[in-house]
């Protein structure tokens, strides 16, 4: 029986969802499938490790090099990876990303043993950093020895092509979440439950704008505060609900005090299975990132029927946002653009009727796997 091993850095809700679908796909094709995780989690992730994983998996021993700046950069090193691959002897390795030791080791192993190597990548040209510059020669080395590629979306595909990856060898599987789960849970969340949650949060306004993500600078959180504050001068009957935690929370609170910004509510980190409740009570989702590989919170919000405001730098924008139909794409680092986009959403009643649910259908991984053979 043929064997496929998928390598991923940590256990996450999206990885579990994708791997469950891949497991079903490979089973139907008579192929053995196993997932190698390089670590259970990372220091900037707070998911409870109680995922219902229906696929075979193993967690490798590791140590990590972590560099903390405006964001946490982790490079996992799993020294047992070569021995493990020798023991398992897979026919094919699918590797998520190139920012870990296992990517280079498994690529070398495949070349040495004449096995198939697939790189699954979400990187785009908008993630300029010292790490990208440092690793670029090694990334190009991997690309020359990669048999085929899977890209998160259009931006990721274009970046692979810019690195000389053959266009004909790249397939797109949109980065995705379980949209049916989010949609169903959101629909089943009753009006009474919504009102109870709003009361618990202390929200009394009719309209709610939602942000969900790490409270770090690259997420555009300071522009969001300024843009929201300017909009409240036009419409005071609106709240900003902020989900997540991060190093910049205190700075955000200081800005709120100094500018006397009203109706901003922080929840802290919300576990994955509770997120739908907050999407359900909201009218608009904003992710104003200065840099974003994809932005899975956009998928989640769209599955719950919300219109979206996000930036050109967000990977998902080009594939999931249709201007005026389910939201707007704005320049990053621009609070004025945020204010104007909020105005357009409410003026055009996109918070009441939009095409988010129809558009997000294209990300349904089980449907994609029927068309895209991997």
Order of helices and strands: EHEEEEHEHEHEHEHHEHEHEHEHEHEHHH
In terms of DSSP E residues, the strand content is 15-25%
- Oligomeric state of this protein: single chain
| Shape descriptor | globular
Rounded to an integer in angstroms, the radius of gyration calculated over CA atoms is: 21 Å
E-strand count:
15
For the largest beta-sheet, the strand count, sense and barrel status come to: 7 strands, parallel
Kindly report the spatial arrangement of strands forming the biggest sheet: 3-2-1-6-7-8-9
- Residue share in helices? 25-40%
**Number of alpha- plus pi-helical segments:** 15
Distance between the termini: 16 Å
Mean pLDDT: 94
Secondary structure class reads alpha/beta
The parts where pLDDT drops under 50 for at least 5 residues are none
What does this protein structure show overall?
With 374 residues, the chain is of the alpha/beta class. It is built from 15 helices and 15 strands. The strands form 3 sheets. It has a 7-stranded parallel β-sheet, with helices on both faces. It has a 6-stranded parallel β-sheet with strand order 12-11-10-13-14-15, with helices on both faces. The protein has a two-stranded antiparallel ribbon with strand order 4-5. The relative contact order is 0.11. The mean pLDDT is 94.
